[in-house]
Specification:
about 300 residues; alpha+beta; four-stranded mixed sheet; globular
């Protein structure tokens, strides 16, 4: 399990570095042994939905299971800001009346309200009105599986941030090396060197926290990784743009593709405050705080 998770995290870091379009972070939930539907799919870990079991006769072939005669679940509510939600099958993980469940949602059968994040990535809101889910499409989950799904989502987002941060370092180093001011490259000025060192340090902090969390999935490890990633995102973007000057904000600047994702991803799957609060509660509950920190 550790090797597979570490491999996936490394792939997500690279996806974040390349700013590739697509619901990459959401597909990390493949560990639940779900047979993914054909075509693009995404994931929504939802709360506040109204779920009820019912048994009207419905024949339907679902993307997760086989055909069934019962609509086992009727769902109403809102799935807010789902990545690529209007164009992908949405695998919903939520608490049901008999415990946690996973089921697919076809956006064509829902009311989709298009949206984007700051980077222009689709974040669509889906309205479900008495949405029928066939019995064979409902997968019961354990509470541990639902909790693990949340941890994996946060770790995946932190990995994307780590990759985007590394891209900021690459682009900034290239710019300060090739840009000449007052007869010498920007990288030869002491003030620039100091800011570049801080940029590299922040990026390295994020990657180290992400790599540590990928070795053994745990609430504390993931909380530390996502909290560090979210905390460092603003500073990394600030330094990179400061050293690029106004050129970094232009529409076609490569830097903009990285920094707008940093600003967007820092708040997705739990922001810095959410995960630092979890760390604080874990520390208060621990018998040995040092052992907790040294994991």
């Amino acid at each position: 399990m550790t090797t597979t998770l570490a491999t996936r995290v490394a792939a997500l870091c690279e996806a974040g570095r390349l700013a590739g379009p697509g619901p990459f972070a959401e597909t990390v939930l493949g560990h639940l042994d779900v047979v993914l539907p054909e075509g693009p799919s995404t994931v929504a870990i939802a709360d506040g939905l109204s779920l009820a079991y019912a048994h009207p006769a419905v024949t339907r072939v679902g993307p997760i299971g086989t055909s069934g005669q019962d609509a086992a679940l009727r769902v109403s509510g809102t799935l807010p800001r789902v990545p690529y939600g209007a164009t992908s099958t949405v695998l919903v993980l939520t608490e049901g009346p008999r415990g946690p469940v996973l089921f697919p949602v076809d956006p064509a059968r829902a009311t989709a309200v298009p949206g984007t994040n700051l980077a222009g990535e689709p974040r669509d809101t889906l309205q479900l009105h008495d949405y029928a889910v066939a019995a064979d499409d409902v997968r019961p989950l354990t509470p541990a599986e639902l909790a693990e799904a949340g941890l994996r989502a946060a770790l995946a987002r932190a990995a994307l941030i780590a990759g985007a941060a590394e891209r900021c370092v690459e682009l900034t180093a290239r710019h300060t090396t090739t840009r000449v001011q007052f007869g010498r490259p920007l990288s030869h000025f002491q003030a620039v060197k100091q800011e570049e060192a801080r940029l590299i340090e922040e990026s390295a902090l994020v990657r180290a926290a992400v790599d540590a969390a990928a070795r053994e999935l745990s609430p504390v490890g993931v909380a530390a990784a996502k909290a560090q990633a979210s905390a460092s995102a603003a500073e990394i973007a600030r330094i990179a743009h400061q050293l690029h000057g106004a050129i970094g904000f232009t529409q076609l600047s490569e830097l903009r593709f990285a920094t707008t994702r940093l600003w967007s991803w820092r708040d997705e799957d739990g922001d810095e405050s959410h995960w630092t609060a979890l760390l604080g509660r874990a520390a208060l509950a621990a018998d040995d705080v040092w052992a907790l920190l040294a994991v």
